[in-house]
Amino acid sequence: MADMRAFRDEVTDWVAGGPGEAARELAARLGVRTAVLLEGPSDLAAVETLAARRGRDLAAEGVCVVPMGGAMSVGRYASLLGPPGLALRLAGLCDEREQPFYDRGLERARAPRRDFFVCVSDLEEELIRALGPAKVEEVIRDEGDIRAWQTFLHQPAQHGRPRQQQLRRFLGTKKGRKIRYGHLLVEALAPEQVPAPLDDLLTSL
Fold it and tell me: In this structure, what DSSP letter does residue 137 have?
């Protein structure tokens, strides 16, 4: 796992304009065959948690899960990791509103779209909808965040909003919370509750 993290770090540096030699060397040494492009670290937490629940070691399978720091970076990542660069197979998740960035980026990189799966709003919303608000609030309570959640609900901006929207907004109000709950909400899912985009992605790898 540490070596795959090193590869991910080298890819991030490469995307930022650094040299790509170290990424190329690590890809060959580790046998990396697939790069999973995700918008951010909370998606990474969810994907890795579901893989672990299913008894899979993605790194050992040659799969590197890469948080890109936003959908607008997909073209750069696809060019460096896909056919024009390392020639890895590309897969991933995207939000519906960001799909045009993915379409353009993958087309420029001559990479197929078949292993990219679309969330309606984002993966957090998919997880909240799959579990239901009551179960998500139970997870929040078990995690010791119930007081913060109740304080959040008293904010005027939250009055009258649907519970699912309130929960989704709450997860983004504190640094690191989306990442933590990306793991916790996937852990709380029953096997039949796994959202289709996440399930399809893991199945495709």
Answer: H
Q: Tell me how far apart the alpha carbons of residues 59 and 30 are, in angstroms, rounded to a whole number.
A: 9
Q: Which residues contact 135 (CB under 8 A, 6 or more apart)?
A: 188
H-helix or E-strand containing 64?
strand 63-67
Cα 135 to chain centroid, rounded? 21
Q: Name the token pair of 136.
A: 């998500």
CB atoms < 10 A from the CB of 72, how many?
12
Using alpha carbons, list the distances in angstroms from residue 91 to 28, 64, 82, 192: 19, 10, 10, 23
Angle at 45 between CA 107 and CA 102, to 5 degrees: 10
Over residues 85-141, the pLDDT tens digits come to 999 999 999 999 999 999 999 999 999 999 999 999 999 999 999 999 999 999 999
> pTM for this one?
0.94
User: Which H or E element spans position 66?
Assistant: strand 63-67
Predicted confidence (pLDDT) per residue in 52-71, tens digit? 999 999 999 999 999 999 99
38's enclosing H/E stretch is: strand 34-38
8 Å CB contact between 129 and 195 = yes
Question: Could you please report the per-residue DSSP string of 77-118?
Answer: HHHHHSTTTT--EEEEEEEGGGHHHHHHHHHHTT--STTEEE
Would you say the C-alpha torsion 95, 173, 46, 186 has a positive or negative sign? negative
